[in-house]
Structures are given as C-alpha cells and as structure tokens.
Design brief:
The protein has 190 residues and is α/β, with parallel strands linked by helices. The chain contains eight helices and eight strands. Helices cover 36% and strands 24% of the residues. Helix 3 packs across helix 5 and helix 6 packs parallel to helix 8.
Length: 190
C-alpha cells in the first residue's frame, strides 16, 4: 500500500473531495513551465502537461466527468483562455472521459491570491462557484486545475459540486505547492 501525505488541517477537517493528486511538486523546472502556460500563452504545453496528469486519474467509470476550475469572466477576457479548461480538454482527449466546461461557473471574482496566507485564501474562495446540478448530479467528478497551493480553490469548488449532487469529487492538478514546514504533514495510508 502506497503512503500518501495528508496535511494536519485536512486530518482535522477532511476536505469535500476524496483525494487530490498532482503530477509534480511546484518547484524547480516545473515553475517556469506552469507560469509560461498560465501567464505567457504557452497553451501548446497543455497536452504535455495532461499526459503527466493522466497517470493520476482515478480508475475510469461510466459516470465520470471532468470539470475544470472556471475563471471569472474578467480574467478569462484578459488571459484569453482558461488554463484548467485546456488541461481538462486534453485529459478528455487522452482518457475518453467526457468533459463539461460549463458544469461550474465562477460567480465571485477572486483577485490574485499570491502572497496571501492560508486563511485569507480560504476566505477569498468562499462562495466563488456555482455548479449546474443537471450536469453533475450522480456523477463522479474529476476536478481539474493547473496548480494547488493551500487547497482553498479546490475546497470551495468541490464543496459546491458535492452540494449540487456529485457522487464524489477527486482533484487532479499538474503541480502542488507543499508547505515549507514539513511538520504540517502527517503520513496516512491510501
């Protein structure tokens, strides 16, 4: 049985998703790849990134649905694309799992949370999403994003998906930022 890392906060208050997996730690050579994809329109990287994420996908089931974390309309206009949407589209093509780009909407714009602490990030993400019950009810949702830092965004999104009737939510990201204080992590059997 493989060991999985679980943060102390997750052990105290379990998140609304079953598990979150990332292809890489957000460090070293991964950082410029992800930032180039996200902020410098290097959208051609989506397929390469999705190929790395594919190995982390839960076992394929008939009722699965890929749902990307949505951007607010202002940020989508500025950037010209939703990086999580591009990753979900590439994952759908590679896995054969259907994707629902419009199954969730961001209803509350969130400003950049870079530099904010955990509590401030969770406050900023609270109430940011709405899900289309008709698209997610009874489905095993795989929530797709580019990077997971504190988990505030995926927690907020997963919670609304569960409240909207999703049978379960798993999270798959390209990268995961780990706390520099390793004492925040405990080991749990998967």
């Amino acid at each position: 049985m493989a060991a999985a890392a679980q943060c102390g906060a997750c052990a105290d208050t379990p998140p609304p998703y079953r598990r979150a997996r990332a292809a890489f730690r957000y460090e070293g050579a991964v950082v410029p790849v992800l930032l180039g994809f996200k902020h410098a329109a290097r959208t051609h990287l989506a397929l390469l990134m999705a190929e790395q994420m594919l190995r982390l996908m839960p076992a394929t089931e008939a009722d699965q649905l890929l749902v990307p974390i949505p951007l607010d309309t202002r940020r989508l206009r500025q950037r010209g694309y939703n990086q999580a949407g591009l990753l979900a589209l590439a994952l759908a093509r590679l896995s054969g799992i259907p994707m629902a780009l419009s199954a969730m909407q961001r209803v509350k714009p969130t400003h950049s949370t870079a530099g904010l602490g955990r509590a401030a990030r969770f406050r900023a993400a609270k109430g940011a999403f709405r899900a289309d019950r008709t698209r997610v009810e009874g489905r095993r949702v795989v929530l797709v994003d580019d990077v997971m830092t504190t988990g505030a965004t995926v927690n907020s999104a997963a919670a609304i998906l569960v409240r909207s009737g999703a049978a379960s939510v798993d999270v798959v990201t390209f990268a995961r930022a780990l706390p520099t204080d390793r004492k925040e992590f405990i080991t749990a059997a998967e």
